[in-house]
DNA sequence: GTGAAAGCGCTAACAA
DNA sequence: TTGTTAGCGCTTTCAC
């Protein structure tokens, strides 16, 4: 049996009629902002809305107001399991402000971001937060900038998280510094022979982390030959494979720095699978929650994800400036079991 | 310095004017559906849209059409790190169909779901997917049903995932069966003394899994005394604490069944922290990806998350029926290292 | 194949 | 404090 009986949704006019007031008054009563409504009328409107099961038509509201409330997050390259500390952080931050939150997930291709931004633009949200890594040689940057400029010209407010170097307000992390600090920490622990498992050749995030790490070692008079810096996809599986490749070469490695925790997990798992876990130390970057119970616990650069999201949202309510603002959030190294102190 | 210069977004009328056609034609050209547009005109419209940086005003479109395209997922009780296999599955499934996807995250309180559904309703999405656990004694169910009925009456299409027993199309998992199968599997491995770490007293999911497990044991003539079925919050930390409580009593437990993987992780971690990990076996439920690299690897009931999401989306395009459809998706036990065969 | 015009549900002057 | 009246930007008949 197949049903059909489809009415239409109750409209503001219906509520108004039932309450015996005009649409304008009903609107005022429902939206609360404009407080010039007699208490009795307000009550009747609310009552009417309730009995009709009325919900605002946000689309119509957005059309009338020219923009819709809330923040829309465009996240590029969401991982398979959807876990993403920035997304989580932004969601929480919007909840704290009781702002409507909407997620647009962009794919992993370069052009996906531009497309997603334009989709987001179509919704005319009052603020847009963009996140996700970027390649240094990304050819779609001009298109992205254009789309975001249009958006700002239309009166929208953008904040980028981690997409450093674009002419919009930005919150970034001190990737280079984090890498540097990790190098220092590992040297302090007594390590001398390193390898780096990195991702996506031109990815700026991983590039900066790697560079910082190498610089940190250099300052301690340690050199990492180029063949010990492996580059592949930016995920666990690739890291797993790269670790195999590295060790097969039988190089003398004491510690492996993976440019993010997901990759560190791949390294750790490979080592465990091959029984090498006690021989080689591993460090990551991000300090994601999902790895909190891993054995051995992972030495990593802790990033204050919630704070990053908070800063970004705080920025959205500030007026735009020329040049745009940039806030750099620092992480700090947390030494755990995966990098025990070396005793020679 | 503070900028201001705010233009307004390009409208369809602007595009039409620049292309030298009417708004109607521009609309037809842009939306492609109605193919009665001369090729030359279509090209000019597209061109004009591009030079103006035009993006459809989806809100206006939704108002005009009465409904907006795409699926909106209402997810209750998203975990802190945002990882949620159903969300991930639904996202993927919508992407495969290139449908716009929007997420509304509801809190963990009972009433949060109703509120979130009404928020979702306000967007007038063509389809709504609801997910998240439910308590057996949930007092907001009538309100939820009412909200969803309204939504359907307005012409929307709802599918519930895992919220069994409500008068709407539903995809559920065979929780009871999974628990039963796990019991059988563990008995087959040689275990005889069990405990269950369960969550939220009236949560239907965990209740069914627990009941199934107990029934499975009963069929093997094994009884679990009530004091070995611990109930607390439905998360890792609670499970960690409960395990401590259980073992402190010094009961003779060979295997612990946690009603989901997150809790199993808590159990596992507690055992590891106290050095008991080799003494007690652990099994979970869900087979979430995040735990793929845990040591020891976790015996669990594998759930086909992507398939569940697929089924749900497939349902949304079917006409409604009376009574509503229910699809039950089964999982299967995967035995891994956390439950080695018992040798006596 | 194309345009004019009506209307989608709401908000925001403006008047009363 | 309330109602009237224009829109908001788009789609969609209905003529041409």
TrEMBL record, chains A, B:
<keyword id="KW-0804">Transcription</keyword>
<dbReference type="InterPro" id="IPR000843">
    <property type="entry name" value="HTH_LacI"/>
</dbReference>
<dbReference type="InterPro" id="IPR046335">
    <property type="entry name" value="LacI/GalR-like_sensor"/>
</dbReference>
<keyword id="KW-0238">DNA-binding</keyword>
<dbReference type="InterPro" id="IPR028082">
    <property type="entry name" value="Peripla_BP_I"/>
</dbReference>
<dbReference type="Pfam" id="PF00356">
    <property type="entry name" value="LacI"/>
</dbReference>
<dbReference type="InterPro" id="IPR010982">
    <property type="entry name" value="Lambda_DNA-bd_dom_sf"/>
</dbReference>
<protein>
    <submittedName>
        <fullName>LacI family transcriptional regulator</fullName>
    </submittedName>
</protein>
<feature type="domain" description="HTH lacI-type">
    <location>
        <begin position="10"/>
        <end position="65"/>
    </location>
</feature>
<dbReference type="Pfam" id="PF13377">
    <property type="entry name" value="Peripla_BP_3"/>
</dbReference>
<dbReference type="GO" id="GO:0003700">
    <property type="term" value="F:DNA-binding transcription factor activity"/>
</dbReference>
<keyword id="KW-0805">Transcription regulation</keyword>
<dbReference type="GO" id="GO:0000976">
    <property type="term" value="F:transcription cis-regulatory region binding"/>
</dbReference>
